[in-house]
Design a protein that fits this description.
It is a single chain. This protein is of the alpha/beta class. The chain has 2 domains: 126 residues, Rossmann fold (3-Layer(aba) Sandwich), CATH 3.40.50.1000; 57 residues, no CATH class. Helices cover 48% and strands 11% of the residues. The protein is built from 10 helices and 5 strands. The chain has a 5-stranded parallel beta sheet with strand order 3-2-1-4-5, with helices on both faces. Helix 9 links the parallel strand 4 and strand 5. Helix 2 runs antiparallel to helix 3. It is globular. The chain starts with a strand and ends with a helix.
Length: 203
């Protein structure tokens, strides 16, 4: 069996929702901070997120003026802290499996659509950096999944031919794009274990 590199998506695979109960990170945003999730989506995520997640714009530079208009009592720093803290629930079973593969000599990278600040938060504060060989993320690459450029640059960073890479991702479009780029890929639904899903690729 060829030596393979494991690429792990983060949100929806390794990390999902609030640490306390797994609910959506903004489930109680309005109650906690007085900010409507719908209003935040309309004024911030919809117009600006594409440029932020691909590294063309900085998170704070776009978020601060939006908050000044729609929620002047909520600072940019406060919302970011709330956001990151409430989207950091780690699936321990998946993480344990990742650790076992790496201990067997399989290089493991996070392959994720993230902006710079949360990428650092995931590696440092959440602690995923202790379990992987690195993080490959959209803001650093200038391209996001499912764009082909993401997979091309990720393979170059991992120093691996596409045929030796397997991706685990919960978004079907990303899985299909990875396969079109020559990778193997698993569509993660959480209905089985990571070991079961990767048995045919990593043994």
């Amino acid at each position: 069996m060829p030596h393979r590199v494991l690429m792990m998506d983060v949100d929806g695979v390794l990390v999902s929702g609030r640490p306390t109960d797994g609910r959506h990170l903004f489930a109680e945003l309005e109650a906690d901070l007085g900010l409507s999730p719908d209003r935040l989506r309309e004024t911030f995520f919809t117009p600006f997120w594409e440029d932020i997640v691909t590294g063309r714009e900085a998170l704070t530079e776009r978020l601060a003026p939006v908050l000044a208009e729609i929620a002047p009592k909520v600072s940019c720093e406060r919302l970011i802290a709330y956001w990151f803290e409430n989207d950091s629930r780690v699936d321990q079973a998946v993480l344990s499996a990742v650790k076992r593969y790496r201990e067997r000599g399989v290089p493991v990278f996070l392959a994720t659509n993230q902006e710079h600040m949360r990428a650092d938060y995931l590696m440092q504060q959440v602690g995923l950096g202790a379990y992987v060989d690195g993080i490959i993320y959209s803001a650093a690459l200038g391209h996001r999944k499912p764009h082909a450029e993401f997979f091309e640059r990720a393979a170059a960073i991992a120093d691996a031919p596409p045929k030796d890479i397997v991706l685990v991702d919960d978004t079907l479009a990303n899985v299909e794009a990875a396969r079109q780029s020559g990778w193997s890929a698993v569509h993660w639904t959480g209905d089985s274990t990571l070991d079961d899903e990767l048995a045919r690729y990593l043994g």
